[in-house]
Amino acid sequence: MNEIILEVTNNIIERSKTSREIYLNRVKEASNKGVNRSKVGCSNLAHTIAPMNEQEKELMSDKVTPNIAIVTAYNDMLSAHEPFSVYPSLIKRTLLNEGATAQVASGVPAMCDGVTQGYEGMELSLFSRDNIAMGTAIGLSHNVYDGAIYLGVCDKIVPGLLIGALSFGHLPAIFMPAGPMPSGISNKEKALVRQEFAQGKVDEKALFKVEAASYHSSGTCTFYGTANSNQMLLEMMGLQLPNSSFVNANTQLRDELTQEASKTLLNLTEYKNNFTPIADIIDERSFVNAIVGLMATGGSTNHTIHLIAMARAAGIIINWDDFNMISSVTPLLCRLYPNGSADVNHFRDAGGMSVVISELINAGLVHEDVNTIVGRGLKNYIVEPTLKENKLVFNKGAIISRDKDIVSSVEAPFSNEGGITLLKGNIGRSIIKTSALKDEHLYIKAPAMVFSTQDELKNAFKEGLLNKDFVAVVKFQGPKSNGMPELHGLLPSLGVLQDKGFKVAIVTDGRMSGASGKVPSAIHLVNEAAKGGAIALIEDGDMICLDVKKGTLNIEIPAEEKIRRTIKKVDLSANHYNYGRNLFSSVRDNISSAEEGATIFDIIGKERN
């Protein structure tokens, strides 16, 4: 094993000792022998089975065979989740043939950041994660289930489902993806037209035509943003069938994988004498493997928030220093949009997760001896699902990339370090995605231009005020201010300026999209402006120095000048009502910092500062 990976793992174990022990003791306390519905009364059980057919009722009444919960994030507005409409019936039929039953225990919200991006609804996006976790817990609280199947793909949905699943750590769990849509128009062409629209070179009709050719059918969007990073993480953590994430939606192979996952979950219940609850799969090593996967594939920066929140649900405490240390020794193995031109379908065809996991195991960068839903050992994930005579088989997976422009090797990586770096300095701590940055953009020193909203920056661009070197400081965008919406809509304008030869960058306490790329962006800054962070003191003209290689972010003003300044109050009230935002005031009041997972949930056994 790589020494740094071992050091990070041991640091996390030591840091988490007390909270992890409390979590595991609570899981043990919640565990029952036999099926869970045998503990409920006759009236309770009658309510449980009332809508079932006679065969299901007979099985349920015997109180011997397992009953499986389905927690679904289905809606037919979200392309990635539309395929889930048929999953419950397929799962139920599959399990019934195996002598077990299943019920939809809960439906949780699933919002599309692609729809809300740049608009008021985006201010609920991050908050929805903890709401999903609570919705998951509400469904499972009926306590008549012996395992759970989780149906979710996109940004906040999978993290929310996993937080909820870990709160029921005594139950076996499996996650099922829907799969990506087929490839549409190239990501490079889409990005180009977006920039042309920002400059007024093409009209809205032309832009829409390109967008519709990119997002064109059911299935997950094909760029490597947060949704597809979620799927990668689930495989790295052993919670999803091997190399199954990027099999296309609405295909026979996808249906076969759904049936196989249902039977795999059943085999983890006590019914099969192979009882393996999720708490026996997820540990500190699981999260280290997940972070390594994130760095090796150039995944979404959103997971520097979500992984922290997910880990805390299991009593495990990770921080940005862990991410940074892992990034320093993890080579970048993948070139996927926005870090390249390929999409996840091309990634799959190049060998996908099988190649990535094989490379990481051979380099000693991941813990191979971990538990997974398909047995002990991450080597079980070096396989490739396919159909043989209309039946699912897992063949030996590729260990050498079929396209080295998309998936490389540890010996010849695209970069010697991972795709995300921690920046520290007198403004605070922040995260920057480096996997898509050119060398000339790793160092930016330029005067600040300060904005309090996205629209202020967009309007300045339209008015021609930004044709110069500058660092856009976009403050009061953190979780306590307005829910930390993604600021992805700023990138076409800044990309245009960058292409003109200007040195530009972003510093913000907000987030960027998981699809963000070529503009250097110091994001998730803590402390945020609403909590009195130094970003709130920055004024127009202050010299900002962003140095990725040194890992620093500083404002170059005399200390006495910084002390003299007072925070100029910004009226945020307009962000706290309409579009449902008023319903989340208690979340804004109680949410933790980005480095603490931007969550309303306390660490197990600990009080938040």
Structural write-up:
The protein is of the alpha/beta class and 609 residues long. It has 2 domains: 3-182 and 217-396, no CATH class; 420-596, IlvD/EDD C-terminal domain-like (Glucose Oxidase, domain 1, 3-Layer(bba) Sandwich), CATH 3.50.30.80. The chain has helices at 3-15, 17-30, 42-49, 54-62, 87-97, 113-116, 125-140, 157-167, 187-198, 204-214, 226-236, 252-267, 284-297, 303-313, 320-329, 344-349, 352-362, 454-462, 479-482, 491-499, 559-564, 585-590, and strands spanning 67-72, 101-107, 147-151, 173-176, 371-372, 375-376, 383-388, 391-396, 420-425, 428-433, 443-451, 470-474, 504-508, 521-526, 543-547, 552-555. The strands form 4 sheets. The chain has an 8-stranded mixed beta sheet with strand order 9-10-14-13-12-11-15-16. A hairpin with a 4-residue loop joins strand 15 (543-547) and strand 16.
**Rg:** 24 Å
With helices defined by DSSP (H or I, 4 residues minimum), what is the helix count? Answer: 22
The number of domains is 2
- Averaged pLDDT, please? 94
Unreliable segments (pLDDT under 50, ≥5 consecutive)? none
Percent of sequence in beta strands: 5-15%
Shape: globular
What is the makeup of the main sheet?
8 strands, mixed
What structural category characterises the helix and strand content?
A: alpha/beta
Ends apart, CA distance between termini = 35 Å
Q: Give the fraction of residues assigned to helices.
A: 25-40%
Sequence of strands across the biggest β-sheet: 9-10-14-13-12-11-15-16
How many strand units? Answer: 16
Catalytic activity: 6-phospho-D-gluconate = 2-dehydro-3-deoxy-6-phospho-D-gluconate + H2O
Pathway: Carbohydrate metabolism; Entner-Doudoroff pathway
Family: Belongs to the IlvD/Edd family.
InterPro entries: 6-phosphgluc_deHydtase, Dihydro-acid_dehy_C, DiOHA_6PGluconate_deHydtase_CS, ILV_EDD_C, ILV_EDD_N, IlvD/EDD_N
